[in-house]
């Protein structure tokens, strides 16, 4: 079983903000997986989250088009395996994201190595992506909260860039001097085009990690 958490803030006010990139990616992942919407988000008071549960059909050397939800009565072909995946959008607000993550991991008795956190990252330029295991939070309060509640940093992160990159560092420092205002701002202008590409890249990264493993996903999607 895999637990894939998109970090963000609940509510219409935050829907299009940079800080909600994690929400955007897991939403798009489910939409692509279930184009006919047989699976939808469920508001879970128990887990303080919106959650969706799917079964990922893993089969080597098959195209992504086969990864749609299977009829529960359909007999699986030889060599095909299913893995349960729980998608999560915490409703505890960003700075308390770990509360929801801890509730779910405890209930399902999950190892933290099976926890994947998808989040925005101002230290990476917009459009960049890095998958990594463990390490510091780099000042991301949502990641800090997950670390605090799980009492470990040993979980996977899908870091999705929303910054401007080192090539324009002086301007970046000026623009995001108040980091909170920056990440709670909406994507604007040309950023919107890059955002669409980044969401697709994030979804493809998750698909590859589920299908071929995280090492393969890192080799393919990590920005050099």
UniProtKB/TrEMBL annotation:
<keyword id="KW-0378">Hydrolase</keyword>
<feature type="binding site">
    <location>
        <position position="93"/>
    </location>
    <ligand>
        <name>tRNA</name>
    </ligand>
</feature>
<dbReference type="Pfam" id="PF01195">
    <property type="entry name" value="Pept_tRNA_hydro"/>
</dbReference>
<dbReference type="GO" id="GO:0072344">
    <property type="term" value="P:rescue of stalled ribosome"/>
</dbReference>
<keyword id="KW-0820">tRNA-binding</keyword>
<dbReference type="GO" id="GO:0004045">
    <property type="term" value="F:peptidyl-tRNA hydrolase activity"/>
</dbReference>
<dbReference type="InterPro" id="IPR018171">
    <property type="entry name" value="Pept_tRNA_hydro_CS"/>
</dbReference>
<feature type="site" description="Stabilizes the basic form of H active site to accept a proton">
    <location>
        <position position="120"/>
    </location>
</feature>
<feature type="site" description="Discriminates between blocked and unblocked aminoacyl-tRNA">
    <location>
        <position position="9"/>
    </location>
</feature>
<comment type="similarity">
    <text>Belongs to the PTH family.</text>
</comment>
<keyword id="KW-0694">RNA-binding</keyword>
<dbReference type="InterPro" id="IPR036416">
    <property type="entry name" value="Pept_tRNA_hydro_sf"/>
</dbReference>
<protein>
    <recommendedName>
        <fullName>Peptidyl-tRNA hydrolase</fullName>
        <ecNumber>3.1.1.29</ecNumber>
    </recommendedName>
</protein>
<feature type="active site" description="Proton acceptor">
    <location>
        <position position="19"/>
    </location>
</feature>
<dbReference type="GO" id="GO:0006515">
    <property type="term" value="P:protein quality control for misfolded or incompletely synthesized proteins"/>
</dbReference>
<feature type="binding site">
    <location>
        <position position="95"/>
    </location>
    <ligand>
        <name>tRNA</name>
    </ligand>
</feature>
<comment type="function">
    <text>Hydrolyzes ribosome-free peptidyl-tRNAs (with 1 or more amino acids incorporated), which drop off the ribosome during protein synthesis, or as a result of ribosome stalling.</text>
</comment>
<comment type="function">
    <text>Catalyzes the release of premature peptidyl moieties from peptidyl-tRNA molecules trapped in stalled 50S ribosomal subunits, and thus maintains levels of free tRNAs and 50S ribosomes.</text>
</comment>
<dbReference type="GO" id="GO:0000049">
    <property type="term" value="F:tRNA binding"/>
</dbReference>
<dbReference type="InterPro" id="IPR001328">
    <property type="entry name" value="Pept_tRNA_hydro"/>
</dbReference>
<keyword id="KW-0963">Cytoplasm</keyword>
<feature type="binding site">
    <location>
        <position position="14"/>
    </location>
    <ligand>
        <name>tRNA</name>
    </ligand>
</feature>
<dbReference type="GO" id="GO:0005737">
    <property type="term" value="C:cytoplasm"/>
</dbReference>
<comment type="subunit">
    <text>Monomer.</text>
</comment>
């Amino acid at each position: 079983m895999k637990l894939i958490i998109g970090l963000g803030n609940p509510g219409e006010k935050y829907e299009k903000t940079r800080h909600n990139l994690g929400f955007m990616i897991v939403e798009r992942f489910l939409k692509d997986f279930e184009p006919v919407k047989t699976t939808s988000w469920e508001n879970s008071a128990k887990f303080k989250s919106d959650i969706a549960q799917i079964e990922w059909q893993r089969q080597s050397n098959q195209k992504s088009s086969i990864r749609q939800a299977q009829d529960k009565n359909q007999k699986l072909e030889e060599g095909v395996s299913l893995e349960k995946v729980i998608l999560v959008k915490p409703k505890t607000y960003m700075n308390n994201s770990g509360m929801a993550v801890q509730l779910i991991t405890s209930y399902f008795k999950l190892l933290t190595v099976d926890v994947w956190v998808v989040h925005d990252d101002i230290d990476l330029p917009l459009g960049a992506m890095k998958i990594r295991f463990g390490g510091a939070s780099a000042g991301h309060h949502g990641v800090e909260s997950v670390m605090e509640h799980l009492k470990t940093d040993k979980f996977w992160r899908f870091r999705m860039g929303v910054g401007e990159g080192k090539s324009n560092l002086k301007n970046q420092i000026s623009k995001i001097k108040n980091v909170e205002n920056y990440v709670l701002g909406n994507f604007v202008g040309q950023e919107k085009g890059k955002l669409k590409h980044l969401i697709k890249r994030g979804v493809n990264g998750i698909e590859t990690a589920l299908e071929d493993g995280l090492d393969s996903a890192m080799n393919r999607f990590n920005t050099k």
